[in-house]
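Reviewer 2 asked us to include a model.

Predict the structure of this chain.
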Amino acid sequence: MAGIAIAVIAADQVTKSLIAAGRIRNGSSLGWLTVRVVRNHGASGSVLSGYPILVTFIALAVTAVAAALAVRVSGRGAALCLAAVLGGALGNLADRLFRSPGLGRGGVVDWIHLSFAGGGSLDLADLAIQFGVLGAIAAMLVVRPAREDGKDRRPHPAAGTTP
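Predicted model (structure tokens):
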């Protein structure tokens, strides 16, 4: 789990550094995807953008919840997906803490702009969070732990039929 979280943080921060250094050209396009740098001082969709300190505290809380869920969840798939969520949350939190204009007020560097479904800008951390949450939910719905008495929780194929 730590490896996945670290890989997500590293990929997120490296791509943001490449964008900031001009190594990935702002404005390059691949059809429905365009590289366009946006500094987001709010939450998703720039919600609460006038309150960066509040958003930073919310990001800290989300990070703590993701970490707690990742270590407590029973299925391996859900745990790995939540590790991706944790890595994404830490990647965006690092931007809020260490990027300008200063501690707790920094803007997340969103650089992937989507031109369909109303657009929107995001980064690799956002993708890890969104797909990680969806994957964790799917994994928790599919994988159910065994009962304490050792019996399988899945219904028998003939359950509910009358002899």
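Residues 2-13+23-142 form one domain. The mean pLDDT is 81. We have added this to the supplementary material.
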